[in-house]
Amino acid sequence: MPYFHVVVKSKNNKKPLCVFKDLSKRDLKNKFIKPYKLNKSFFYCGSILTASELVNIKIVSTLQKHEQELKRELSVAHVELIKKADDLFKDIIEESNALDSDNVGTSFDTVVGYNDYEIQDCGVDVTHKFIREAPGEGTSLSKFSEILRHPWVVRVFAVFLPLMLIYLDIK
């Protein structure tokens, strides 16, 4: 079963936020997609976010839960960091032998896997499968009901419905 995670950036906070994690497809649609399409608010960690505040959305699908996926990502990053450190250490020894100097600086990349939003770098990005339009565009049902409420559609039904009933009653 795939797990879905939603990472967003809002107008007020440029730092990514993982607002939902470990959701089923049904939960994703009910908790995020539907409120987004209807431009409604959703609750996140004691805060209320509206869909119109969002400037960036990423929906990620993973085979493992959030915590397990980040641990896996952390272990991969850890192995890469050890390889970099090993290469750097070899370079330092070579430079030290060549320069006969003890003052050689080093720098390391930051390790990933400590922030919830780093789930956006794991799994598969499936945002395009769920969101194709701006917030507030509505769901399929709300769009259809909007068409039915259009004045011209109402007028056509108001004229043809009685005519159809009269026609069917005559036969």
Distance between the termini: 56 Å
Alpha-beta classification: alpha+beta
Number of domain modules: 2
Number of helices: 5
Task: Provide a quick synopsis of the model.
Helix content is 47%, strand content 20%. By secondary structure, it is an alpha+beta fold.
What would your notes on this structure say?
By secondary structure, the protein is an alpha+beta fold. The protein has two domains: 3-93 and 109-138, no CATH class; 139-171. 47% of the residues lie in helices and 20% in strands. It is built from five helices and six strands. Strands 2-1-5-6 form a four-stranded antiparallel beta sheet. A two-stranded antiparallel ribbon has the order 3-4. A hairpin with a 2-residue loop joins strand 3 (41-44) and strand 4 (47-50). The longest helix has 34 residues, at 66-99. The chain is elongated and about 105 Å long. It starts with a strand and ends with a helix.
